[in-house]
Amino acid sequence: MKTAVLAAAASAAWLATSLCARAGTADPFAKWLNQQSPTCVPVADFAAVARPIELTPEQFEFVRALYVAMPPMSKDLPPGDHAVMATAGDETLLALVGGDMSCARFLAPRFIVAMLMEVGQGATYKVGEPASYEIER
């Protein structure tokens, strides 16, 4: 899990650029991603364009880590206690949910969706050397 979160954090800059560029053209989800969108929307609203799928607790933590890493970086825990994914055409919306309301959501590029599926299948690492560092005193 740590490797997956690290990989996600390392690509946060690319992800943020991609998401910002796509936010204006997010056809099926545009009304929930623009500046005029309400902060919180019922998850049931997403059903108008796609079927929201409940994510596992591990996938929720992955989505939450992505949300915190995206600019503007949050200094608070993201809202919600679980996450859903909704896919319509080529677009995938990830939403952090509390109760039946999403107060945090974003589009996910395909590589993030692929990593999210790996997390859902229990993948926690790739073969290789783990990153580490030492604090010099």
Annotation keywords:
5-stranded antiparallel β-sheet, alpha+beta, disordered N terminus, 137 residues, 33% helix
The tally of helices reads 4
Portion of residues in beta strands equals 15-25%
Low-pLDDT segments:
1-24
Tell me the radius of gyration: 15 Å
Strand order of the largest sheet: 1-5-4-3-2
Number of strands: 5
Label the overall shape.
globular
Secondary-structure element order, N to C? HHEEHEEEH
| Rounded average pLDDT | 80
Compute the separation of the termini in Å. Answer: 29 Å
Structural class: alpha+beta
General description of the model:
This protein is of the alpha+beta class and 137 residues long. The protein has one domain (2-120). Helices cover 33% and strands 19% of the residues. The chain has helices spanning 2-10, 12-23, 57-69, 110-120, and strands at residues 41-42, 53-54, 82-88, 91-98, 101-107. Strands 1-5-4-3-2 form a 5-stranded antiparallel β-sheet. Helix 1 (2-10) runs parallel beside helix 3 and helix 3 packs antiparallel against helix 4. The longest helix is centred in the middle third of the chain and has 13 residues, at 57-69. The protein is globular and about 55 Å long.
